[in-house]
Amino acid sequence: MSATEMKAEVESHLKKKTAIESILPANILIGPFYVSTDGVRQGVVKKHRNLANAVLELLARKLRTQAEEVSMKFRNKLGDLIK
Questions:
Q1: Are 14 and 52 in contact (CB under 8 A)?
Q2: Suppose 13 and one of 43, 52, 56, 81 were both cysteines; which one would form an S-S bond, judging by CB atoms 3.0 to 4.6 Å apart?
Q3: CA angle, 27 as apex, 22 and 33 as ends, to 5°?
Q4: Is residue 19 predicted with pLDDT exceeding 80?
Q5: pTM (2 decimals)?
């Protein structure tokens, strides 16, 4: 998965989180019944926020690994030039 695809994935989860917060009410009145949907609402919002954070953490690890590889190659080339 490329960085661009990961960014799109994060944006998708954050948009879904925002949509759920604005669409799903905390409580619903159905006839004589008062139904609290806040627990479900907060659970789904938390799920999407956690998924977005997980993708960002994965991207950070991937970029850190790439940076370490480039740094190692640079050190090797620098060592060859000094010899």
A1: yes
A2: 52
A3: 150
A4: yes
A5: 0.74
